[in-house]
From TrEMBL:
Organism listed in the record: Cacopsylla melanoneura
Any one GO cellular component localisation term in the record: plasma membrane
Membrane topology note: Multi-pass membrane protein
Name of the protein in its database record: Thyrotropin-releasing hormone receptor
Cellular location(s): Membrane
Keywords: G-protein coupled receptor, Membrane, Receptor, Transducer, Transmembrane, Transmembrane helix
One Gene Ontology molecular-function label: G protein-coupled receptor activity
Amino acid sequence: MNSTASLNDFYFNESTRAGGNASEGAAGINTLWPQQTPRPEMKFIELLQLYYTPLLVGLGSIGNILSVFVFFGTKLRKLSSSYYLSALASSDTGFLVTLFAVWLNMIDIPWFTNDGICQISIYLTYVCSFLSVWFVVAFTIERFIAVRYPLHRPSMCTVARAKVILISLTLLALALYSPYLFISGPQINLDTRQNTTIVYCGLVQKWKDLATLLNHVDFILTLIVPFSLIVVLNTLISRTVWRVARIRRSMINNNNNNKLGVGGTTSAGSVNHHHQSVRNNLTSHNTQKMFQNSRRNSAGNSSQTKVTKMLLIVSSVFICLNLPSYTMRFMIFINETLQYESEETQNNVVMWQHYCQILFNTNFGINFALYCISGQNFRRSLVALFCKTKRNKRARREMSQTTVLTDYAGGGRYGNSMKRKHTIQTDS
């Protein structure tokens, strides 16, 4: 009797990336669940995956597509950060597409386990998840430069540089994970308890050593290095933003105090008071000049501050949603004796990794909501995009009505008669 794995296929996305013994992917830990006694917790997870995943894929993909339209279809396209966020939305959508292919197995559509589809899905899963984390890193580095070294921002944080970085990361990911196109494929596992064969998409057993090496490299490139960079850079960005805000408040308070000093009364014959008044005037003049220079760039600084705040929220949520899954990966990565643990321990590992995987998957479909919540410019651009689309439709409709009316009016015999018909058609 043949069957296709259901929840087991969902576990693939994480188990094949876990390292250690899990480097066997679906042929290793991934086969634990079908051969073990079903548990109520696993049934709950399966139901959660069954209904939550299509909702996440649908809404997440729509949100990501809208994000690309907002970043490229409005004035935001002039910002280099828009290119990073658009690329992030594209890679997130690619991951959601592969997740949907896995979900189809749960409703008895074994598309994911077909030869060719299996290899491409695994390949895209690795590529898209790698790109997503490194696009966040690239965006974080750009924000760090803009906040910490504002004088270098115009020359370093450019659209051209962003394009080069995005293309380089994409080419690197495509080349780095290309081996998965031939070391993975549909696999068959025998379940002796139920006398069935489970068809799943996983890593080919003969490539176990290469898969282990690639998983270790992936573990370093998608966990240790990027998470360290994001945490360190976000900490430095937050400290800089807080320090700048404190200095700005201090300057405002000093300016107010200087104005009060200038407006104070002085004794008519007091030279000291006169000198103090002159010094106050000079100080007030210099401070006001500084504020005038500051106001010239206030719009740009305000925009950069809003982008920085949005980055901090997006990257912080990214860490929170990914950290549980990566923690499980780290535990499996260092636990080389996992296959010798008791069945209860193995069941618990599988169960908790499924919960972590749900959070991990959520990260790929939540950014649009984060942009709407934390990005004032994004919300305004989103509204402007819809209003622009609505105006364009109205203009095209009116133009179409006017054209048809002109053709009809051209056949009239009298000028005033033709004009009267034109007015009626336009009002309708």
